[in-house]
Amino acid sequence: MRAMSYGSFGGAEALSLVDVPTPTPGPGQLLVKVSATSVNPIDWKMASGKLRLFLPVEFPAVPGFDVCGRVAALGPGVGGLTLGQRVHARIAASPGGASAEFALVEAVQAVAIHHEMSDADAAALPLAGMTALQGLRAGGLPPSGATARVLIVGASGGVGHLALQIARAAGAQVTGVCSGRNEATVRGLGADDVIDYTNPEAWAGKGPWDIVYDCVGGDAGPWYRHLAPRGHYLTCVPAPATFLALASAPFRRVKVTAVMLKSNGPDLRTLDALHEAGRLRVLVDSTYPLSELPKAWDRSKSGRAVGKIVVTVG
What we know:
Layout: E1 2-6, E2 15-19, E3 29-39, H1 41-48, E4 66-74, E5 86-90, E6 102-106, E7 111-112, H2 119-124, H3 126-138, E8 149-153, H4 160-169, E9 173-178, H5 183-188, E10 193-196, E11 209-214, E12 227-235, H6 240-252, E13 255-258, H7 265-276, E14 284-289, H8 293-301, E15 308-312
Parallel strand pairs: 8-9, 8-11, 9-10, 11-12, 12-13, 14-15
Antiparallel strand pairs: 1-2, 3-4, 3-6, 3-15, 4-5, 5-7
Helix pairs in contact: 3-4
């Protein structure tokens, strides 16, 4: 089968299109004929080698955690899914393996795709969507009692644009932080208010918020002043400073959480139900064929993508 692979640490230039053996599903696994996958920053960050102490990579490596396709083979003990059925999942094994014509998926993490969902949406949703959902849940949504005030930092990005909509669906009052050029897009997703981070005066008279969900990353400290008493700062892009913030949070009377994704079928079904109900829209920034995965990585690295970057395979 064809696959995009890298044999050493590096950037997009390390990727090459190669022929590799088609894997065989083991117990509890599916072999999926891949239709599409999507790019997540974790893909090129792992390939750079900067995360190798925490996320080791065995070469040659086929990247890509999001997968959408049809079941091509069932491993021993797999039930509830049938050959030819459309499914999607976030592959839990590192470094993924979705940037190929076939990929292995744990059956318990795969979910059948409803007929109205496109391959692009199905490929874009798992990793970013579950990160958004699990982060907001850790922050206390859906709330009990008064409406929660939520600030989404990076509201036009892959995780952020989904977190915004999930928070709205949970009944929160949501403010999105993005550049001014993306304000109309973020308002169109349901934001009650938008703050242009390039304009320091845009913060005047805004806040505080019960939850700040940082989908960009960096130092947590500057966000504390935007939190209500006993507010909650969450980030899905933890930096070393985040873990220092975890230690100091009790003294500041705030909560700090580093969101660590756990792939699972039930959360993906929750996202699919929101999508089917028209309450969760996936923004696709751009689409590339498998052979142009290096260009897709470069687009992701630029930090200018609005929504998700999709890679077609089938």
